[in-house]
Amino acid sequence: MVSRRLLLGALAGLAAPAIAFAEGDGPAPSLLTRKGRRTRSALKHQATDKAALDKALAEVKPLEAHPAVHTPAAEPAVTPDEALGRLKHGNAIYARGGANLMLPTMARIAELSQGQHPFAVVIGCADSRTAPELVFDCNMGELFVVRVAGSTVGREGLGSILYAVEHLGAPLIVVLGHTKCGAVGAAVDVAKKHTEMHGALQEMVLPIIPAVLEADETHPADLQDAAIRRNVRDIAGRLKRADEVLTERIADGRLKVVSACYDLGTGVVSFDT
């Protein structure tokens, strides 16, 4: 294999040392003498690199064209209800303090290197206290997790979800919020107190504001908690119509989309089903 720096160094003369320095490897290049001439050692180094490159390129074989291969969509290994039952059972274990915190064995790690088959997609908040693998007593390779503050879903997140459903066969999507969510609290402040947020922080809370306004009409006394639950319900509802892959699988009974809320104080997840 021809190294990137070797290739660029041969094509651009003496650029390789500069590239190495820019990428954090090696000292700053000093290829010129005080008189502005290249040193003999630099020229010798260039010649050596050029010879090595010529030899490597001579050994490269042309790529062979391969026919296009269509990969069929993966089918769920378990039903949506079975997947939901596993999550509920795992959370019950976690909430009573009996969660399995064993790390995966090397055999399991080697097995997962060959492929993954998660039984559920969890769209969660980035809050450090809400790791889905712990909350649902799951191990590596069992959950496909997409996490953003406020449990919102943008286009990139939707693409990740579609990949997990269509290509990995996940039969369940859970939109998981949690009590005392700071992102939702910030959205409440923006909607009700006209708090100003800058840049990406403003973009983070904007998708949550509709849920805040909806919750304000029914539960103004406990607005943050109501908005947290309204937010995940709204996201789950929109996901059901977000892409034909999801709508078709839901109609066929191969996929279920549910919302839920994790209580930081008790460890219990309440599902909206």
Give the CATH topology of the largest domain: Beta-carbonic Anhydrase, Chain A
Order of helices and strands: HHHHHEHEHEHHHHHEE
Number of strands: 5
Derived from helix and strand composition plus strand pairing, the structural class reads alpha/beta
CATH top-level class of the largest domain: Alpha Beta
Counting structural domains, the number is 2
Helix content: 40-55%
Low-confidence runs (pLDDT<50, min 5 residues)?
1-46, 60-70
Radius of gyration: 27 Å
Strand content: 5-15%
What is the count of DSSP helices, taking H or I runs of 4+ residues? 12
CATH superfamily grouping of the largest domain: Carbonic anhydrase
Report the end-to-end length measured between terminal Cα atoms.
55 Å
Strand order of the largest sheet: 2-1-3-4-5
Biggest sheet, in brief? 5 strands, mixed
Q: What's the CATH architecture of the largest domain?
A: 3-Layer(aba) Sandwich
Shape: globular
Average pLDDT reading = 81
How would you describe what is shown here?
It is a single chain. The protein is of the alpha/beta class and 273 residues long. It folds into 2 domains: 4-58, no CATH class; 80-271, 3-Layer(aba) Sandwich (Beta-carbonic Anhydrase, Chain A), CATH 3.40.1050.10. The protein has helices at residues 4-11, 15-22, 40-58, 80-95, 106-112, 132-135, 155-167, 182-193, 199-205, 209-218, 223-239, 244-251, and strands spanning 120-124, 143-147, 172-178, 256-262, 269-271. It has a 5-stranded mixed β-sheet, with helices on both faces. Helix 1 (4-11) crosses helix 3 and helix 10 crosses helix 11 (223-239). The longest helix has 19 residues, at 40-58. It starts with a helix and ends with a strand. The model is unreliable at 1-46 and 60-70 (pLDDT under 50).
